[in-house]
Specification:
Blueprint: H1 5-8, E1 12-17, H2 22-25, H3 38-47, E2 51-56, H4 77-80, H5 85-96, H6 101-110, H7 112-123, H8 134-137, E3 143-146, E4 149-152, E5 155-157, H9 163-170, H10 177-184, E6 188-189, H11 193-203, H12 205-210, E7 231-240, E8 243-250, E9 256-261, H13 266-280, E10 285-288, H14 297-305, E11 309-312, H15 322-337, H16 344-357, H17 367-372, H18 387-401, E12 412-416, E13 424-432, E14 437-442, E15 445-450, E16 454-456, H19 501-506
Parallel strand pairs: 1-2, 5-6, 7-10, 10-11
Antiparallel strand pairs: 3-4, 4-5, 7-8, 8-9, 12-13, 12-16, 13-14, 14-15
Protein backbone atom coordinates (compact mmCIF):
# COMPACT_ATOMS: atom_id res chain seq x y z
CA UNK A 1 0.00 0.00 0.00
CA UNK A 2 2.76 2.44 0.86
CA UNK A 3 4.60 1.62 -2.34
CA UNK A 4 1.59 2.50 -4.50
CA UNK A 5 0.36 5.36 -2.31
CA UNK A 6 1.10 7.89 -5.08
CA UNK A 7 -1.41 6.18 -7.35
CA UNK A 8 -4.04 5.48 -4.61
CA UNK A 9 -4.45 8.93 -3.08
CA UNK A 10 -7.63 10.60 -4.26
CA UNK A 11 -8.84 7.43 -6.00
CA UNK A 12 -11.48 4.86 -4.97
CA UNK A 13 -10.11 1.31 -4.97
CA UNK A 14 -10.91 -2.15 -3.64
CA UNK A 15 -8.73 -3.87 -1.07
CA UNK A 16 -8.80 -7.68 -1.44
CA UNK A 17 -7.59 -9.94 1.39
CA UNK A 18 -7.58 -13.69 2.04
CA UNK A 19 -7.98 -13.14 5.82
CA UNK A 20 -11.70 -12.60 6.50
CA UNK A 21 -11.43 -10.97 10.00
CA UNK A 22 -9.60 -8.04 8.46
CA UNK A 23 -12.75 -7.07 6.58
CA UNK A 24 -14.26 -6.09 9.95
CA UNK A 25 -11.17 -4.59 11.53
CA UNK A 26 -10.29 -2.39 8.56
CA UNK A 27 -13.85 -1.70 7.42
CA UNK A 28 -14.01 1.95 6.31
CA UNK A 29 -17.28 2.55 8.15
CA UNK A 30 -16.47 0.76 11.42
CA UNK A 31 -14.20 1.84 14.23
CA UNK A 32 -11.24 -0.16 15.40
CA UNK A 33 -11.79 -2.02 18.68
CA UNK A 34 -10.00 -0.47 21.63
CA UNK A 35 -8.44 -3.79 22.51
CA UNK A 36 -6.86 -4.22 19.04
CA UNK A 37 -3.12 -4.44 18.74
CA UNK A 38 -1.14 -1.24 18.25
CA UNK A 39 -0.01 -2.37 14.81
CA UNK A 40 -3.60 -2.86 13.69
CA UNK A 41 -4.51 0.57 15.00
CA UNK A 42 -1.65 2.13 13.03
CA UNK A 43 -2.79 0.38 9.86
CA UNK A 44 -6.38 1.55 10.49
CA UNK A 45 -5.15 5.15 10.85
CA UNK A 46 -3.15 4.85 7.63
CA UNK A 47 -6.13 3.46 5.71
CA UNK A 48 -8.37 6.18 7.14
CA UNK A 49 -6.88 8.72 4.75
CA UNK A 50 -7.84 6.67 1.67
CA UNK A 51 -11.12 5.92 -0.12
CA UNK A 52 -11.49 2.15 -0.37
CA UNK A 53 -13.74 -0.84 0.05
CA UNK A 54 -12.51 -4.16 1.46
CA UNK A 55 -13.64 -7.66 0.53
CA UNK A 56 -12.63 -11.22 1.15
CA UNK A 57 -11.25 -13.69 -1.46
CA UNK A 58 -10.22 -17.25 -0.80
CA UNK A 59 -6.50 -18.02 -0.86
CA UNK A 60 -6.79 -20.51 -3.73
CA UNK A 61 -8.35 -17.75 -5.80
CA UNK A 62 -5.83 -15.14 -4.69
CA UNK A 63 -3.14 -16.18 -7.17
CA UNK A 64 -1.93 -12.80 -8.35
CA UNK A 65 -0.97 -11.64 -4.87
CA UNK A 66 0.21 -15.08 -3.72
CA UNK A 67 2.51 -15.76 -6.69
CA UNK A 68 5.82 -14.99 -5.06
CA UNK A 69 5.11 -17.29 -2.11
CA UNK A 70 4.35 -20.20 -4.44
CA UNK A 71 7.40 -20.04 -6.82
CA UNK A 72 9.52 -23.23 -6.91
CA UNK A 73 12.56 -23.35 -4.76
CA UNK A 74 16.05 -23.58 -6.31
CA UNK A 75 16.88 -27.15 -7.36
CA UNK A 76 18.97 -29.06 -4.92
CA UNK A 77 22.02 -31.10 -5.84
CA UNK A 78 20.16 -34.35 -5.40
CA UNK A 79 17.38 -33.14 -7.66
CA UNK A 80 19.82 -32.49 -10.50
CA UNK A 81 20.85 -36.12 -10.46
CA UNK A 82 17.32 -37.22 -11.42
CA UNK A 83 16.98 -35.16 -14.66
CA UNK A 84 15.27 -37.18 -17.39
CA UNK A 85 17.95 -36.93 -20.09
CA UNK A 86 16.05 -39.19 -22.49
CA UNK A 87 12.98 -37.01 -22.37
CA UNK A 88 15.11 -33.90 -22.82
CA UNK A 89 16.79 -35.43 -25.88
CA UNK A 90 13.45 -36.25 -27.47
CA UNK A 91 12.20 -32.73 -26.87
CA UNK A 92 15.27 -31.24 -28.54
CA UNK A 93 14.93 -33.57 -31.50
CA UNK A 94 11.30 -32.61 -31.99
CA UNK A 95 12.29 -28.94 -32.17
CA UNK A 96 15.07 -29.62 -34.68
CA UNK A 97 13.19 -31.95 -37.00
CA UNK A 98 13.05 -30.40 -40.47
CA UNK A 99 9.97 -30.21 -42.65
CA UNK A 100 9.34 -33.10 -44.95
CA UNK A 101 7.23 -33.71 -48.03
CA UNK A 102 4.70 -35.65 -45.95
CA UNK A 103 4.20 -32.63 -43.69
CA UNK A 104 3.63 -30.38 -46.69
CA UNK A 105 1.26 -32.94 -48.27
CA UNK A 106 -0.88 -33.20 -45.13
CA UNK A 107 -1.00 -29.42 -44.66
CA UNK A 108 -1.86 -28.91 -48.33
CA UNK A 109 -4.99 -31.03 -47.88
CA UNK A 110 -5.96 -29.13 -44.69
CA UNK A 111 -5.39 -25.60 -46.06
CA UNK A 112 -8.63 -24.13 -47.49
CA UNK A 113 -6.90 -22.38 -50.39
CA UNK A 114 -4.31 -24.98 -51.39
CA UNK A 115 -6.89 -27.77 -51.21
CA UNK A 116 -8.92 -25.98 -53.87
CA UNK A 117 -5.80 -25.45 -55.97
CA UNK A 118 -4.99 -29.13 -55.56
CA UNK A 119 -8.41 -30.21 -56.79
CA UNK A 120 -8.38 -27.68 -59.64
CA UNK A 121 -4.99 -28.93 -60.77
CA UNK A 122 -6.26 -32.52 -60.84
CA UNK A 123 -9.72 -31.95 -62.34
CA UNK A 124 -9.37 -28.64 -64.20
CA UNK A 125 -9.75 -24.94 -63.51
CA UNK A 126 -12.91 -22.91 -63.81
CA UNK A 127 -13.00 -19.88 -66.08
CA UNK A 128 -13.75 -17.51 -63.20
CA UNK A 129 -11.61 -18.46 -60.16
CA UNK A 130 -12.02 -16.98 -56.73
CA UNK A 131 -9.88 -13.91 -55.83
CA UNK A 132 -7.55 -15.86 -53.52
CA UNK A 133 -6.85 -18.35 -56.32
CA UNK A 134 -5.84 -15.84 -59.01
CA UNK A 135 -2.14 -16.06 -58.18
CA UNK A 136 -2.32 -19.83 -58.81
CA UNK A 137 -4.66 -19.51 -61.77
CA UNK A 138 -2.06 -17.49 -63.68
CA UNK A 139 0.30 -20.46 -63.33
CA UNK A 140 -2.28 -23.21 -63.93
CA UNK A 141 -0.41 -24.58 -66.91
CA UNK A 142 2.77 -24.93 -64.85
CA UNK A 143 1.25 -26.42 -61.66
CA UNK A 144 1.58 -30.17 -61.11
CA UNK A 145 0.82 -32.66 -58.32
CA UNK A 146 3.43 -35.09 -57.07
CA UNK A 147 3.30 -37.14 -53.85
CA UNK A 148 0.36 -35.16 -52.56
CA UNK A 149 2.27 -31.87 -52.92
CA UNK A 150 1.72 -29.01 -55.33
CA UNK A 151 4.68 -28.09 -57.51
CA UNK A 152 5.29 -25.06 -59.70
CA UNK A 153 7.91 -26.35 -62.05
CA UNK A 154 10.48 -27.91 -59.70
CA UNK A 155 9.51 -25.67 -56.75
CA UNK A 156 7.23 -26.99 -54.00
CA UNK A 157 4.26 -24.79 -53.07
CA UNK A 158 4.55 -24.32 -49.29
CA UNK A 159 1.33 -23.97 -47.25
CA UNK A 160 0.99 -20.76 -45.17
CA UNK A 161 1.48 -22.69 -41.89
CA UNK A 162 5.04 -23.67 -42.78
CA UNK A 163 6.13 -20.56 -44.70
CA UNK A 164 7.76 -18.94 -41.67
CA UNK A 165 9.73 -22.09 -40.88
CA UNK A 166 10.94 -22.30 -44.45
CA UNK A 167 12.02 -18.66 -44.33
CA UNK A 168 13.97 -19.28 -41.13
CA UNK A 169 15.61 -22.28 -42.76
CA UNK A 170 16.60 -20.15 -45.75
CA UNK A 171 17.93 -17.47 -43.40
CA UNK A 172 20.31 -19.89 -41.73
CA UNK A 173 23.75 -18.35 -41.95
CA UNK A 174 22.38 -14.79 -42.44
CA UNK A 175 23.44 -14.70 -46.07
CA UNK A 176 21.35 -11.72 -47.10
CA UNK A 177 18.39 -11.06 -49.35
CA UNK A 178 19.97 -11.96 -52.69
CA UNK A 179 21.37 -15.31 -51.62
CA UNK A 180 18.15 -16.22 -49.80
CA UNK A 181 16.13 -15.58 -52.93
CA UNK A 182 18.58 -17.51 -55.06
CA UNK A 183 18.47 -20.50 -52.71
CA UNK A 184 14.71 -20.44 -52.26
CA UNK A 185 13.91 -20.17 -55.97
CA UNK A 186 15.42 -23.58 -56.51
CA UNK A 187 13.23 -25.30 -53.91
CA UNK A 188 10.04 -23.52 -52.74
CA UNK A 189 7.45 -20.99 -53.83
CA UNK A 190 4.32 -19.26 -52.61
CA UNK A 191 2.69 -15.94 -53.49
CA UNK A 192 4.72 -12.92 -52.33
CA UNK A 193 7.76 -15.10 -51.70
CA UNK A 194 10.25 -12.33 -52.61
CA UNK A 195 8.61 -9.73 -50.38
CA UNK A 196 8.51 -12.17 -47.44
CA UNK A 197 12.24 -12.84 -47.82
CA UNK A 198 12.98 -9.10 -47.86
CA UNK A 199 10.76 -8.56 -44.81
CA UNK A 200 12.58 -11.25 -42.83
CA UNK A 201 16.01 -9.83 -43.66
CA UNK A 202 14.93 -6.28 -42.86
CA UNK A 203 13.54 -7.37 -39.48
CA UNK A 204 16.63 -9.38 -38.49
CA UNK A 205 18.51 -7.26 -35.96
CA UNK A 206 21.93 -8.96 -36.34
CA UNK A 207 21.77 -8.55 -40.12
CA UNK A 208 20.79 -4.91 -39.92
CA UNK A 209 23.41 -3.99 -37.32
CA UNK A 210 26.31 -5.63 -39.13
CA UNK A 211 25.54 -4.86 -42.77
CA UNK A 212 27.92 -2.89 -44.96
CA UNK A 213 27.59 0.75 -45.97
CA UNK A 214 24.88 1.57 -48.50
CA UNK A 215 25.73 2.43 -52.07
CA UNK A 216 27.38 5.80 -52.41
CA UNK A 217 24.98 8.57 -53.32
CA UNK A 218 25.16 10.74 -56.38
CA UNK A 219 28.21 12.99 -56.24
CA UNK A 220 27.16 16.58 -55.62
CA UNK A 221 29.76 18.79 -57.21
CA UNK A 222 30.83 22.03 -55.58
CA UNK A 223 29.83 25.10 -57.54
CA UNK A 224 32.79 26.29 -59.61
CA UNK A 225 33.85 29.75 -58.35
CA UNK A 226 34.09 32.54 -60.90
CA UNK A 227 37.11 34.27 -59.36
CA UNK A 228 40.47 32.86 -58.25
CA UNK A 229 41.03 32.41 -54.52
CA UNK A 230 37.33 32.92 -53.68
CA UNK A 231 36.95 29.44 -52.14
CA UNK A 232 39.82 27.43 -50.67
CA UNK A 233 39.95 23.90 -49.23
CA UNK A 234 42.35 23.11 -46.39
CA UNK A 235 43.48 19.89 -44.72
CA UNK A 236 46.44 18.40 -42.86
CA UNK A 237 48.63 15.68 -44.34
CA UNK A 238 51.30 13.60 -42.74
CA UNK A 239 53.20 13.00 -40.69
CA UNK A 240 56.22 13.12 -43.02
CA UNK A 241 59.46 12.61 -41.07
CA UNK A 242 57.78 13.93 -37.96
CA UNK A 243 56.36 17.00 -39.68
CA UNK A 244 52.77 17.82 -40.61
CA UNK A 245 51.86 19.51 -43.91
CA UNK A 246 49.10 22.11 -44.09
CA UNK A 247 47.51 21.97 -47.53
CA UNK A 248 45.52 24.90 -48.98
CA UNK A 249 44.03 24.46 -52.49
CA UNK A 250 42.23 27.11 -54.54
CA UNK A 251 38.96 25.77 -56.00
CA UNK A 252 39.13 27.98 -59.13
CA UNK A 253 42.72 27.59 -60.31
CA UNK A 254 43.64 24.41 -58.33
CA UNK A 255 46.72 26.30 -57.07
CA UNK A 256 48.17 24.54 -54.01
CA UNK A 257 49.91 26.08 -51.03
CA UNK A 258 51.73 23.67 -48.69
CA UNK A 259 53.44 24.60 -45.43
CA UNK A 260 55.59 22.32 -43.27
CA UNK A 261 54.52 22.58 -39.62
CA UNK A 262 55.95 21.05 -36.47
CA UNK A 263 52.85 21.94 -34.44
CA UNK A 264 49.22 21.79 -35.59
CA UNK A 265 47.55 23.81 -32.87
CA UNK A 266 44.91 26.38 -33.72
CA UNK A 267 47.26 29.31 -33.09
CA UNK A 268 50.00 27.87 -35.34
CA UNK A 269 47.44 27.11 -38.05
CA UNK A 270 46.16 30.69 -37.89
CA UNK A 271 49.71 31.98 -38.13
CA UNK A 272 50.39 30.02 -41.33
CA UNK A 273 47.04 30.94 -42.88
CA UNK A 274 47.67 34.62 -42.12
CA UNK A 275 50.95 34.40 -44.05
CA UNK A 276 49.24 32.74 -47.04
CA UNK A 277 46.35 35.23 -47.00
CA UNK A 278 48.81 38.13 -46.91
CA UNK A 279 50.30 36.84 -50.16
CA UNK A 280 47.18 35.67 -52.00
CA UNK A 281 44.39 37.66 -50.34
CA UNK A 282 41.42 36.71 -48.18
CA UNK A 283 39.06 34.08 -49.60
CA UNK A 284 35.29 34.40 -49.37
CA UNK A 285 34.80 30.79 -48.25
CA UNK A 286 36.99 28.22 -46.49
CA UNK A 287 36.16 24.48 -46.48
CA UNK A 288 37.71 22.07 -43.96
CA UNK A 289 36.99 18.89 -42.04
CA UNK A 290 36.07 18.75 -38.36
CA UNK A 291 39.61 18.65 -36.97
CA UNK A 292 40.11 20.20 -33.52
CA UNK A 293 42.14 23.06 -35.01
CA UNK A 294 39.34 24.02 -37.41
CA UNK A 295 36.47 23.72 -34.92
CA UNK A 296 38.13 25.69 -32.12
CA UNK A 297 36.74 29.02 -30.95
CA UNK A 298 40.05 30.76 -31.74
CA UNK A 299 39.94 29.62 -35.38
CA UNK A 300 36.28 30.63 -35.72
CA UNK A 301 37.05 34.08 -34.31
CA UNK A 302 39.96 34.50 -36.76
CA UNK A 303 37.74 33.75 -39.76
CA UNK A 304 34.89 35.89 -38.45
CA UNK A 305 37.12 38.94 -38.06
CA UNK A 306 38.40 38.53 -41.63
CA UNK A 307 34.97 38.02 -43.17
CA UNK A 308 35.62 34.43 -44.28
CA UNK A 309 32.73 31.96 -44.26
CA UNK A 310 33.69 28.61 -42.74
CA UNK A 311 32.10 25.40 -44.10
CA UNK A 312 32.87 22.02 -42.50
CA UNK A 313 32.28 18.57 -43.95
CA UNK A 314 30.14 15.82 -42.43
CA UNK A 315 31.99 13.82 -39.74
CA UNK A 316 33.92 10.85 -41.17
CA UNK A 317 32.97 11.82 -44.73
CA UNK A 318 36.16 13.04 -46.42
CA UNK A 319 34.52 13.21 -49.88
CA UNK A 320 32.91 16.51 -48.90
CA UNK A 321 36.39 18.06 -48.77
CA UNK A 322 37.46 16.04 -51.79
CA UNK A 323 39.58 18.74 -53.46
CA UNK A 324 42.02 18.90 -50.56
CA UNK A 325 41.87 15.16 -49.90
CA UNK A 326 42.67 14.31 -53.53
CA UNK A 327 45.62 16.70 -53.58
CA UNK A 328 46.94 15.17 -50.35
CA UNK A 329 46.83 11.75 -52.01
CA UNK A 330 48.71 13.03 -55.07
CA UNK A 331 51.30 14.85 -52.96
CA UNK A 332 51.97 11.84 -50.72
CA UNK A 333 52.51 9.60 -53.73
CA UNK A 334 54.93 12.13 -55.28
CA UNK A 335 56.93 12.60 -52.07
CA UNK A 336 57.14 8.86 -51.57
CA UNK A 337 58.32 8.31 -55.16
CA UNK A 338 61.08 10.94 -54.95
CA UNK A 339 64.02 8.98 -53.57
CA UNK A 340 66.75 11.36 -54.79
CA UNK A 341 66.85 13.15 -51.43
CA UNK A 342 65.61 12.77 -47.89
CA UNK A 343 64.82 16.45 -47.34
CA UNK A 344 61.05 16.90 -47.21
CA UNK A 345 61.26 20.61 -47.97
CA UNK A 346 63.35 20.03 -51.11
CA UNK A 347 61.05 17.29 -52.40
CA UNK A 348 58.01 19.43 -51.65
CA UNK A 349 59.39 22.45 -53.54
CA UNK A 350 60.17 20.30 -56.58
CA UNK A 351 56.69 18.82 -56.55
CA UNK A 352 54.92 22.19 -56.17
CA UNK A 353 56.81 23.76 -59.09
CA UNK A 354 55.95 20.85 -61.37
CA UNK A 355 52.32 20.62 -60.18
CA UNK A 356 51.63 24.33 -60.64
CA UNK A 357 52.99 24.19 -64.21
CA UNK A 358 51.06 21.06 -65.26
CA UNK A 359 47.59 21.36 -66.86
CA UNK A 360 44.88 20.24 -64.46
CA UNK A 361 42.53 17.45 -65.53
CA UNK A 362 39.43 19.47 -64.59
CA UNK A 363 40.26 22.92 -65.98
CA UNK A 364 42.63 21.97 -68.78
CA UNK A 365 44.86 24.91 -67.77
CA UNK A 366 47.82 25.16 -65.44
CA UNK A 367 47.15 26.46 -61.91
CA UNK A 368 49.83 29.13 -62.42
CA UNK A 369 48.12 30.54 -65.52
CA UNK A 370 44.67 30.66 -63.91
CA UNK A 371 45.90 32.31 -60.71
CA UNK A 372 48.77 34.54 -61.86
CA UNK A 373 47.98 34.83 -65.57
CA UNK A 374 51.38 33.49 -66.64
CA UNK A 375 53.26 30.19 -66.59
CA UNK A 376 56.07 29.73 -64.12
CA UNK A 377 59.51 29.61 -65.71
CA UNK A 378 61.23 26.27 -65.26
CA UNK A 379 64.27 24.50 -66.64
CA UNK A 380 62.13 23.14 -69.46
CA UNK A 381 61.89 26.67 -70.87
CA UNK A 382 65.59 26.47 -71.71
CA UNK A 383 64.74 23.90 -74.37
CA UNK A 384 62.49 26.28 -76.27
CA UNK A 385 64.16 28.75 -78.70
CA UNK A 386 63.88 32.33 -77.44
CA UNK A 387 62.71 34.44 -80.38
CA UNK A 388 63.09 37.73 -78.52
CA UNK A 389 66.72 37.06 -77.69
CA UNK A 390 67.30 35.87 -81.23
CA UNK A 391 66.00 39.17 -82.61
CA UNK A 392 68.13 41.16 -80.19
CA UNK A 393 71.22 39.22 -81.24
CA UNK A 394 70.38 39.84 -84.88
CA UNK A 395 70.04 43.57 -84.26
CA UNK A 396 73.39 43.58 -82.50
CA UNK A 397 75.00 41.80 -85.44
CA UNK A 398 73.54 44.28 -87.91
CA UNK A 399 74.75 47.24 -85.88
CA UNK A 400 78.25 45.83 -85.70
CA UNK A 401 78.47 45.55 -89.47
CA UNK A 402 78.30 49.33 -89.99
CA UNK A 403 79.51 52.28 -87.98
CA UNK A 404 77.00 54.75 -86.58
CA UNK A 405 77.57 58.21 -88.03
CA UNK A 406 77.12 61.10 -85.64
CA UNK A 407 76.59 64.79 -86.42
CA UNK A 408 76.92 67.74 -84.08
CA UNK A 409 75.03 71.05 -83.99
CA UNK A 410 76.64 73.65 -86.27
CA UNK A 411 78.27 71.02 -88.48
CA UNK A 412 77.99 71.49 -92.25
CA UNK A 413 76.41 68.48 -94.00
CA UNK A 414 74.82 67.52 -97.28
CA UNK A 415 71.09 66.85 -96.82
CA UNK A 416 68.99 64.86 -99.23
CA UNK A 417 66.80 67.10 -101.38
CA UNK A 418 63.43 65.66 -102.46
CA UNK A 419 62.30 68.81 -104.30
CA UNK A 420 63.43 70.05 -107.72
CA UNK A 421 67.11 70.64 -108.15
CA UNK A 422 70.19 68.77 -107.09
CA UNK A 423 69.66 65.62 -104.97
CA UNK A 424 72.01 66.93 -102.27
CA UNK A 425 72.11 70.44 -100.83
CA UNK A 426 74.34 72.03 -98.22
CA UNK A 427 72.88 72.67 -94.77
CA UNK A 428 73.80 73.14 -91.13
CA UNK A 429 72.85 70.77 -88.33
CA UNK A 430 70.67 72.54 -85.75
CA UNK A 431 69.91 69.81 -83.18
CA UNK A 432 69.48 66.08 -82.69
CA UNK A 433 65.82 64.96 -82.37
CA UNK A 434 66.36 61.23 -81.94
CA UNK A 435 68.96 58.49 -82.02
CA UNK A 436 69.28 58.84 -85.81
CA UNK A 437 67.27 62.00 -86.62
CA UNK A 438 68.44 65.64 -86.92
CA UNK A 439 67.08 69.07 -87.79
CA UNK A 440 69.06 70.59 -90.67
CA UNK A 441 68.80 74.24 -91.74
CA UNK A 442 69.03 74.66 -95.49
CA UNK A 443 68.89 78.25 -96.55
CA UNK A 444 65.97 79.81 -94.74
CA UNK A 445 64.11 76.56 -94.09
CA UNK A 446 64.55 73.67 -91.67
CA UNK A 447 64.38 70.03 -92.65
CA UNK A 448 64.22 66.88 -90.54
CA UNK A 449 66.53 64.22 -91.87
CA UNK A 450 67.66 60.70 -90.95
CA UNK A 451 71.38 59.93 -90.83
CA UNK A 452 70.88 57.89 -94.02
CA UNK A 453 69.72 61.13 -95.64
CA UNK A 454 72.80 63.12 -94.54
CA UNK A 455 76.46 63.06 -95.60
CA UNK A 456 79.61 64.67 -94.32
CA UNK A 457 81.11 67.31 -96.60
CA UNK A 458 84.02 69.69 -96.70
CA UNK A 459 82.05 72.40 -98.53
CA UNK A 460 81.30 75.44 -96.43
CA UNK A 461 77.72 76.64 -96.62
CA UNK A 462 77.24 80.30 -97.62
CA UNK A 463 75.33 82.02 -94.89
CA UNK A 464 71.98 83.65 -95.43
CA UNK A 465 71.81 86.77 -93.28
CA UNK A 466 68.38 87.72 -92.03
CA UNK A 467 67.07 90.13 -89.48
CA UNK A 468 65.58 87.18 -87.56
CA UNK A 469 68.05 84.33 -87.99
CA UNK A 470 66.17 82.10 -85.52
CA UNK A 471 62.97 82.10 -87.56
CA UNK A 472 62.01 78.70 -88.92
CA UNK A 473 59.22 78.30 -91.40
CA UNK A 474 57.29 75.05 -91.43
CA UNK A 475 54.87 73.89 -94.06
CA UNK A 476 51.70 71.88 -93.68
CA UNK A 477 51.64 68.35 -95.08
CA UNK A 478 50.85 67.56 -98.70
CA UNK A 479 48.37 68.19 -100.37
CA UNK A 480 48.43 71.69 -98.82
CA UNK A 481 49.23 74.17 -101.65
CA UNK A 482 52.97 74.71 -101.89
CA UNK A 483 54.69 77.88 -102.98
CA UNK A 484 58.43 77.90 -103.41
CA UNK A 485 60.81 80.82 -102.97
CA UNK A 486 61.25 82.70 -106.32
CA UNK A 487 64.61 83.30 -107.93
CA UNK A 488 66.18 86.52 -106.82
CA UNK A 489 68.27 88.81 -109.00
CA UNK A 490 69.64 92.32 -108.79
CA UNK A 491 66.29 93.83 -109.87
CA UNK A 492 64.31 91.92 -107.20
CA UNK A 493 62.55 94.03 -104.63
CA UNK A 494 61.63 91.26 -102.23
CA UNK A 495 58.23 90.71 -103.83
CA UNK A 496 57.61 86.98 -104.27
CA UNK A 497 56.74 85.67 -107.71
CA UNK A 498 53.68 83.39 -108.10
CA UNK A 499 54.81 79.85 -108.96
CA UNK A 500 53.14 77.41 -111.32
CA UNK A 501 51.32 75.09 -108.92
CA UNK A 502 50.92 72.35 -111.48
CA UNK A 503 54.65 72.19 -112.05
CA UNK A 504 55.29 72.26 -108.34
CA UNK A 505 52.97 69.35 -107.74
CA UNK A 506 54.66 67.22 -110.41
CA UNK A 507 57.53 66.42 -108.06
CA UNK A 508 56.62 64.57 -104.88
CA UNK A 509 57.63 66.22 -101.65
CA UNK A 510 58.19 64.01 -98.60
CA UNK A 511 56.10 64.58 -95.51
CA UNK A 512 59.15 65.34 -93.41
CA UNK A 513 60.37 68.10 -95.75
CA UNK A 514 59.94 71.70 -94.69
CA UNK A 515 59.59 74.37 -97.37
CA UNK A 516 58.73 78.07 -97.18
CA UNK A 517 55.14 79.18 -97.34
CA UNK A 518 54.21 81.61 -100.14
CA UNK A 519 53.56 85.18 -99.11
CA UNK A 520 50.58 86.94 -100.59
CA UNK A 521 51.56 90.52 -100.05
CA UNK A 522 54.72 92.58 -100.64
CA UNK A 523 54.04 94.30 -97.36
CA UNK A 524 54.75 91.18 -95.33
CA UNK A 525 56.17 91.49 -91.85
CA UNK A 526 59.40 89.95 -93.00
CA UNK A 527 62.01 92.60 -93.98
CA UNK A 528 63.91 92.43 -97.25
CA UNK A 529 66.60 89.80 -97.40
CA UNK A 530 70.14 90.67 -98.23
CA UNK A 531 71.58 87.67 -100.02
CA UNK A 532 75.18 86.97 -100.62
CA UNK A 533 76.17 85.13 -103.81
CA UNK A 534 74.09 81.95 -103.70
CA UNK A 535 75.73 78.74 -104.70
CA UNK A 536 72.40 76.84 -104.82
CA UNK A 537 70.79 77.71 -108.14
CA UNK A 538 67.00 77.85 -108.10
CA UNK A 539 65.34 77.49 -111.45
CA UNK A 540 61.64 78.30 -111.54
CA UNK A 541 59.34 79.41 -114.39
CA UNK A 542 58.46 83.07 -114.33
CA UNK A 543 55.02 82.78 -115.80
CA UNK A 544 51.80 83.03 -113.83
CA UNK A 545 49.39 80.14 -114.02
CA UNK A 546 45.98 79.52 -112.64
CA UNK A 547 45.61 77.56 -109.48
CA UNK A 548 44.18 74.05 -109.98
CA UNK A 549 40.52 73.69 -109.14
CA UNK A 550 41.11 70.89 -106.61
CA UNK A 551 42.81 73.40 -104.28
CA UNK A 552 39.56 75.26 -103.77
CA UNK A 553 38.73 73.15 -100.69
CA UNK A 554 41.96 74.08 -98.93
CA UNK A 555 42.43 77.12 -96.75
CA UNK A 556 45.27 79.37 -97.80
CA UNK A 557 47.39 80.87 -95.03
Amino acid sequence: MKKFLFYLEGQSFTLVTDHQPLTTIFHPHKSVPATAAARLQRWAMFLGGLQYTIKYKSGKLHANADLLSRLPLPALEEDKKHIDTVGLFHVQQIELLPLSASDLSKETQRDPVLSKVYQATLHGWSSDPEPELKAYHRRKNELTVQGGCLLWGVRVVVPPRYQQRVLEELHTGHMGVVKMKGLGRGHVWWPNFDSDVEGLCNSCSPCQLTQTNPAAGVVHMWEYPEQPWSRVHIDFAGPEQGKMLLVVVDAHSKWPEVKVMSSTTASKTIEVLREIFARQGLPAQLVSDNGPQFTSAEFAEFLRKNGVRHVTSAPYHPRTNGLAERFVRTMKAALKSDTSTTCVKLKLDRFLLAYRNCPHATTGETPAKLLTGRPLRSRLDLLRPDMVQKVKNKYATINQQGSVRTFYPGETVLARNYARGDPWVIGTVLTCTGPLSYLVKVGSVTWRRHVDQMRNTGIQAERVVEHNPLETELTPQVPTPIALEPELDSSATGVPVQIDMALASDRSVPSDSVVPVARTSPSATRPPVVVEPVTIPVSRPKRTTREPSYFKDFVRT
